[in-house]
Amino acid sequence: MSDDNDPGSDALPPVLTDVTDGVATLTLNNPRRKNAITLEMAQLITDFCDRVESDGQIGAVIVRANGEYFCSGADTRTLAAASSDPASPDAVAGVSAVYGVFVRIGNLPVPTIARVVGGAVGAGLNLAMAADITVITPDTVLDSGFLARSIHPGGGHLSLLGKAVGWSTTIAMAACGQALTGQEAVDRGLAHAAVAEDAMDSYIATLAAAAAKDPELTRRVMNSARLELGPPAVSWSSALEIERGVQMWSMSRKGQSSWSSRGPGKS
Questions:
Q1: β-strand pairing of 133-136 with 119-121
Q2: DSSP conformational letter for 48
Q3: Which pTM does this prediction carry?
Q4: Do 120 and 76 share a structural domain?
Q5: DSSP structural state of residue 179
Q6: Is 5 helix (H, G, I), strand (E, B) or coil?
Q7: What is the pLDDT of residues 117-130, one digit of tens each?
Q8: Which of 5, 193, 213, 227 is 20 to 30 A from 261 via CA?
Q9: Domain count, the chain
Q10: Distance between CA atoms of 191 and 136, rounded to whole angstroms?
Q11: Rounded to the nearest 5°, which phi and psi values hold at 19?
Q12: pLDDT tens, 25-72?
């Protein structure tokens, strides 16, 4: 994977990737179009997800963007082409390719952390919501955006919003055009934390490093979390059974001697 993330070179691809110390970073590199996702970008993101899924040494993923805006959604040229004949196989395939990216990001076997500056709108908000943890700045704007374009939400937008903020705020955003900014988004559950931009990288690195320290355990925790929390969520008794075997595996791996406060091999 490339580790060249210089946004100034036109020779660079529209999606940049890097894996360092167990942390995989995906960087949208289409700043001239506010990082709108093209079909080429969708394929590159899919390739990145394939790598994360197959590489057991990766324990965390960071999704970020070059430029001053996280993501303005699907590229309008793709949407315009689809609008000429929405029922055509090519139109369905094109829009589905972009929306399928969010499902892939949302189902990765490790924690995903979205670094969102400037704003995320429409399908760009889908990408931010697909991440397990979304970190924004105090002035980042999270906007449903579909209403303003006079089109129905897509890509599971309503489901993602509802899971994060509940019915009332979902309707306020998707049907009434309300946007959330900074701490308000955190308070409503749409973001994990609002952090000053110059402190974001350090904050996110701390989260990612903890997950990447033990990728095998992290992947098992994530699998159990998805099984238990759903949707749909399971009962407490079912959660106990889901966790039992995996916790016993982790205890066996840890070993009896490592529990001693005096150090391994001491009782």
A1: unpaired
A2: H
A3: 0.88
A4: yes
A5: E
A6: coil
A7: 999 999 999 999 99
A8: 213
A9: 2
A10: 7
A11: -130, 120
A12: 999 999 999 999 999 999 999 999 999 999 999 999 999 999 999 999
Looking at the fold, whether 39 and 103 belong to one and the same domain comes out as yes
Neighbours of 262 (CB within 10 A): 8
Task: Give the tokens for residue 77.
Answer: 């040229």
What is the Cα–Cα distance from 200 to 185, expressed in whole angstroms? 16
Both 172 and 126 in one domain: the answer is yes
Looking at the chain, list the stretches that DSSP marks H as alpha helix, in order from N- to C-terminal side: 39-54, 76-84, 89-106, 123-130, 157-174, 182-188, 197-212, 215-229, 236-254
Boundaries of domain holding 247:
214-254
Residue 102 · residue 114 · CB < 8 Å: no
Number of Cβ within a 10 Å radius of residue 170:
20
Give the residue from 152, 153, 150, 142 showing the smallest Cα distance to 178: 142
- Coil, helix or strand at residue 223: helix
Element at 27 (helix H, strand E): strand 23-28
Q: What CA–CA distances, in Å, run from 163 to 75, 111, 130?
A: 25, 17, 11
Long-range Cβ contact pairs of 158-167 (< 8 A, separation 24 or more): 160/102, 160/126, 160/129, 160/130, 161/129, 161/190, 163/129, 163/231, 164/129, 164/188, 164/189, 164/190, 165/189, 165/190
